[in-house]
Amino acid sequence: MRRKGMHAVSSPLKGLKLTTGRFVLLAPKDKDHYNPILCLEKTLYTMIECYLTPEQQSLFGSIPNDSLVEAPSPPPSPSPSPPNSYASTSSSSSSRSNASLSSLTSLSSSGSRPHTPSPLKPQVNYLRALQRAIHIRDGPLFVMTLSAINSLLRMLKYPKLPFDPFSSTPRNAFLDTVDSWATNGTGLPQKVLFRIIEENYQRSVGPHVASLKNYEAFSSTVYGELMPSFVHEMIRQVGLKEDSLFLDLGSGVGNVVLQASFETGCRSFGVELMPAPATVAQKQLEQFKIRCRMWGLKLGEVELEQGDMLTSQRVTELLPKADVVLVDNKVFEESLNMALRPKFLDLKEGAIVVSLSPFVPTLNARMTERNVDDISAIFDVTERHYKSGSVSWGPSGGSYYLHRVDREGYSKIREQFENSRAGRTSRSRR
User: Fold this and answer.
1) Angle at the Cα of 374 (from 371 to 376), degrees rounded to 5?
2) Domain 190-416 coded CATH 3.40.50.10540
3) Which of 148, 264, 324, 385 is 20 to 30 Å from 56 by CA-CA measure?
4) What is the C-alpha separation between 306 and 292, in angstroms, rounded?
5) Per-residue pLDDT tens for 126-168?
């Protein structure tokens, strides 16, 4: 559908006179590139599935199990068709759909506030109609169907005010759902979490991918990303909460910092040395704030800095307060890993350092008198495994490491060695 122009899906929530997005109706030349129509389609399905009750969902029709944007083209007709048959078929289909949709689109264009819709199934399965318009590349049908869908969304967002001015104002159906996630303890649905993250990334980071590849190969500045599913698992493993402080040393474009604060409400800080990803991170943060408000959700406090993690004054200030520190050190030079280790002495008891390579020289090795004085001995290390597709630099799985500060346990072991040394010295003197 190579139609120039913009179209939007209405925001489900009050608070901003914005939409969840404006999309250029162009198909990408490369199937792996950002597809705005597919993005719009996924966003719409997520809104309807996660924010609405089954009764409200029925107004839009059934949510397709697959995306026709990604589906193969239908098989050709078994008999030859006249040269203009496709156009006439498309036109006829559009005319029939347009007639079915005209009453709702007239509501949308009238400017009047429509009544709250009744819980009856619509005459048109709007979601299937939208999918069909995409599949047959019918621009007018696509725009008209989406206008009808937006009218339904506005009906739920702005229910008609009661005739009696003393009656309570009807609630925004979408905000009721957001409130219920907190009240019922279910939390943010994963589909909403990953949709917002993907939507924001594609539109904030995607256009700058070329600039992110300007790094020195085989150096500590190599750019790589942890995928949202992996970050979600890591957040659960370390127990990040709303009152936690999360630090990302080498935060790149800010993906993990943003997801941590979005998913848990925690306070997050990220520092990135390279100018290109640090600049993109700031842009992504601003867009993420806007997108959270569009979806009626909150983002925890996020602070980003462009600078050197080893010399940053802010890192020095925050490390003693941090609950979780992430270091994506998979390709860090050993000199950088060694320089970071003394900084971890400032961490508080129970703090966790998450890394892609261990900071302990010999993982799971027994502590002896030889290594008891190593600063990494304060860590109790656990190795975890991530699945294929969890990182951007390779298709296979791997390991990551949770280093929990355990000074109390370390002190007991050190005391045992010191007592043993004292005993041997006493016997040798006799």
Assistant:
1) 115
2) no
3) 264
4) 24
5) 999 999 998 888 888 988 999 999 999 998 888 887 777 777 7
